[in-house]
Amino acid sequence: MRSSDIKDKLKGIVTIIGIGNIMRGDDGFGPKLIESLKKKNTKANLFDCGTVPENYIFPILGTSCDTVILVDAANLKTEPGSMKVLTLGELSGAGLSTHNASIRLFTDLLMTGKDDLNIFAVTVQPKTIAFGESLSAEVLESVDKLTDIFVDALA
Description:
Structural class: alpha/beta
Radius of gyration: 14 Å
CATH class: Alpha Beta
Distance between the termini: 17 Å
Number of domains: 1
Helix content: 25-40%
Number of strands: 6
CATH architecture: 3-Layer(aba) Sandwich
C-alpha cells in the first residue's frame, strides 16, 4: 500500500476511526494505529472506538467531517499484516474480526442526513485474534507503515 492509495480517496475534513479489541491480539490494530497517529499530530480527527464504534456517532458527526476512514483487522484470507483499502460496499462482506453486526449499523448512522459522506476502510489481515495475545510482529509493522502513509497523505 502506498500513500497515493489513501490520498486519492480523501476529501475535506478527515476523521480516522480505530476499531478493535486490544485484548485480542491483532484485533487491536485500529486502536494501536490511532495511538500511533496521536503521537504524530496528524491533521485528522482521531477516534479510538474500541469494539463499540456506534457509541461514538455523535462525537464523530460533531467534527463535520467529509471523509471517514475505518481502520480495523479483517480476515481477508491474505498474508498476516497485509493491508487493503475497502469501499463501503466491500466492507459489508469483509470479516471484521469481533464486531460484524455493528459495522453496517455504524456506517448507516454516520450517513444519516449526510449522503455525500465519503467512507472507506483500511484493513489488515490478522495473524491471531486470540484473547490475551499481543499484536503480532507483522501487524505492528503494518501499524508503522500505515502511520507513515497517513502522515504523508494528510500533510
